[in-house]
Amino acid sequence: MKKIFLLIGVVIPLLIIFVQSSSLRLLIPKPDAILNITDTDSPLILYIDNRLIGTLPLEQISVSPGSHTFSLYTVEGEEDLSIWWRDEIEVSSGDSLQIVIQSTSSDHISGIGLIRTFSSNGNDISSIFMDPNTVPVTVNGTQYTDFPVILTDVSEGTYDIATASDLYSNISLSLDIPKKTGFEVHIQLFFDYVRSVQHVSGLTIEPTLQLQLPIARRWDWQDQYLAIPAAKLLTKEWKFIDVYQMALPTMTEDDETLRTLEALFVKKQSTFRLPFGFVVTEDGHIYEGMGIWDFDFSSLGLSGITSDGSKCPILILGADVSPEQQKALNFISAFITDEPGTYGEVSSDLVTKKLTTEEVSEYEVTLKNTGWSTWKTDDAHAVKFKAVGSVRADVYHPDLWESPEIASKLTDPIVLPGAETSAFIPLKAPSYPITYTQDFVLIQDDVQMRNPTISVPIEVTGAGKGIEITDTPTGFLNVRETPSFASTLIGAVYPGERYLWLETQADWHKIRLLDGTEGWVNGGFIKDI
């Protein structure tokens, strides 16, 4: 019996001490830390050290001792993942880990807290890390502004931790800390772009166009073309501006800021584009927003943004209205009431069109609407190609052209500013060979657009020869049935028109008209081409 007591009372404790103090301790597996995630049904995916763990909510996740990187991703579209949050923390054996996700609504996460609690012998410090580190945090009513916050006198009890920011959404955590336990907290706050927009009142606006400030178009800052459903293209004449303000926590490059803002509004508010007519940065630079002239912003039904369709909402970035922004607002106020006109340009290469005599074909050209107004190509307001530079184009197609001048119209029913459209000009090669450049311009409502001339190189090959009618005292030249002034008149041709030459008798030349009729004209009023 004494031997048993000796074994229990002396030998076994000595063995335990030996194991704890020797290399044999390394052979005993250390218990993992356990991770739990508290969230509000956020559709997030957890990765640890780039290894997929699963979709939230998750509980009782084992995490081995060591340094680990925790990441939360959102799902963008069918397959793409977008990083939402990432943090790194050193984990010890037996730690308790918790990720707390708090939301202000179903579509906005206000903040994330990564909490590690660990066994403490009383000498360990507890700490709080903040991102961004400009946001104050309170712990049981005491405010801290320097980070990390170091707490050296942590004892058993409840620790209420809360952030206080006017720009960011805030987060509050409550930790129940038992005896001989310390904690490490990492807090990440998120900026709610959409809800940070505030209406600005009391501004004195003095409309003026004297400054002629430049405006960056949508395609200057947005490299993606965002379409707008035709049913949403509601317009109402702008008469006034309505000013809104957003104090951003950080300012990146202007283009990046605008792309970020637009992506957030499209995702969270389903606005299909940035819901402002213009955006003015802190230094007074003006950027086109929605990109639709006279767009009725009240049709979006956004809470807090203009409900009056005659007002153009302007977003200014920054905490205060700077003098440069005031100048920009004055300019925009006058600009929106000024008729912008229509513009277009060719965005495809104009290659030479090669044809044989009398061949029927078409010429494809890609156009970009570089104006402010939408091209609505219905019959009443169709955008059309008008041939210029001659009385009648050599490639005039009598069956498909509206007239000897109007070649065709665009077929896309709507072409928004910044959008491209493919158009086809029907061509019929003349019955004579010719190499020349046919110029076209774009017109809408019989008004020529402010755009460069579209110059199409034409090369027609084949037999035969062409002639051109020159100026005559009467402004026309008779076509007769035979080469005689006494012959029957069968038609008339006009200066600048070109025809196929067939033969010559004395001062008379036989030509073929566009309808195939052959007749004779006096040679004193023609020239070879």
From TrEMBL:
It comes from the Bacteria. SMART domains: SH3b (SM00287). It comes from candidate division WWE3 bacterium. This is SH3 domain-containing protein. InterPro entries: Ig-like_fold, SH3-like_bac-type. Pfam families: SH3_3. Residues 464-529 form the SH3b domain.
